[in-house]
Design a protein that fits this description.
Elements (H helix, E strand, L loop, with lengths): L15 H4 L2 H21 L5 H19 L6 H9 L7 H23 L4 H12 L13 E2 L6 E3 L5 H16 L9 H15 L6 H15 L11 H6 L1 H14 L2 H40 L6 H9 L2 E2 L1 H8 L3 H13 L3 E6 L2 E6 H8 L1
Antiparallel strand pairs: 1-2, 3-5, 4-5
């Protein structure tokens, strides 16, 4: 494909017979079952903030890793916990991604839908610049290893805006989707957004945020806890191969089957992780009750699960005690082996060791 070879991207919808094959419908049923189980187990956790903090950070790290932005889980939690802590540019990008997810979630909760301007604001938060939609021709997608041009997205700004407007109509309007299961449409919409490639940077991460917002807007899950980035990292070459084949040969079936498998496998893995968090929380509650009864409150234990890197300020704010008491609570939890302290700059941070080990898996 030449550098400015014409792209073959059509507005939505695609031919329904291509996206509703027998194989796709069977796979969609399995993926829907897995996601329904995930939604159910998520609702058994007493504090939804616990899941948001744990799973969004994991996703922020994994999604950035797809773009070869590498940071460690330790750096991330330190960046979010400590006031005066120098963080690497890579960690800053991951923190921005987390903020972009929360911005999208809040907009969806407030409005009940997402607009093109909201997508631009999410990407702005993610990349930390306001370049907006591409207006200068010349963007091509190349093979990282060979440098060969594999796809030339739309070049004209007006065309990009027209395609985005068409995309958002189908994103928000269930009636336009003509009774095709929502999970199949997630795959269609993800392909479409990545193929429009509307920004100079951050298209992949913005597209993965839109996936989760689509799941929430269709009531498949309630909070942003299902992310496909870890699956994409493990199957990166297949992801790009199937994505490109839709453009080159109109092979919708293999692309949609890949995405449905990603949803199913990720839902199962996330459900297992949430179950592990819930069991560890219950075990820790009983352990603290037995070994530190004078300071035990359920709220205190839930706090150290909401904030795997805790500090005095968090306890003061959440429990409503003075700093001296908050400091004593954290020290006692360290004495019985639940937390371990660490100096970050001039602050002391307390790490929930077992939870942290679980989140790093």
């Amino acid at each position: 494909m030449g550098q400015f070879a014409p792209h073959s991207l059509s507005p939505l919808p695609p031919d329904q017979s291509k996206i509703e094959t027998v194989k796709i419908l069977k796979k969609a049923a399995k993926a829907s079952f897995a996601i329904a189980e995930l939604k159910g187990i998520a609702e058994t956790i007493p504090s939804q903030q616990m899941l948001l903090n744990a799973i969004i950070l994991k996703e922020a790290k994994d999604s950035s890793e797809v773009e070869n932005i590498i940071t460690s889980t330790d750096e991330l939690y330190e960046a979010l916990s400590a006031k005066e802590h120098k963080i690497s540019p890579e960690t800053k990008e991951v923190v921005n991604y987390r903020q972009a997810i929360m911005l999208g979630f809040q907009l969806l909760q407030k409005q009940g839908f997402i607009r093109v301007n909201d997508i631009i604001n999410i990407q702005n938060k993610l990349i930390n610049n306001d370049a907006g939609i591409r207006s200068t021709p010349g963007t091509v997608l190349k093979n990282d290893k060979t440098g060969e041009v594999v796809y030339t997205p739309p070049q004209d700004k007006l065309e990009i805006e027209h395609l985005l407007s068409n995309f958002i109509q189908y994103f928000n309007n269930e009636e336009l989707r003509d009774d095709t299961p929502a999970l199949i449409w997630l795959a269609v919409l993800h392909f479409q957004f990545e193929s429009i490639h509307p920004f100079y940077d951050g298209n992949g991460r913005t597209g993965r945020i839109l996936n989760i917002l689509f799941l929430i807007s269709n009531n498949l899950i309630k909070i942003p806890i299902l992310y496909l980035s870890s699956y994409i990292i493990k199957n990166k070459s297949s992801y790009y191969k199937h994505l490109n084949q839709v453009n080159e040969t109109n092979d919708w079936e293999n692309w949609i089957l890949f995405m449905l498998d990603a949803i199913e496998q990720t839902a199962i893995a996330t459900k297992d992780q949430i179950n592990s968090i819930r069991l560890l929380l219950e075990k820790t509650i009983e352990y603290v009750k037995l070994n530190a009864p004078k300071i035990y409150t359920r709220e205190l234990v839930e706090l150290i699960f909401e904030q795997p890197y805790s500090k005095i300020d968090f306890v003061v704010e959440r429990i409503g005690v003075e700093r001296k008491a908050a400091s004593r609570y954290l020290r006692e939890l360290e004495e019985i082996g639940v937390l371990k302290s660490k100096k970050v700059g001039r602050e002391k941070i307390y790490i929930n060791l077992e939870l942290f080990a679980l989140l790093k898996q």
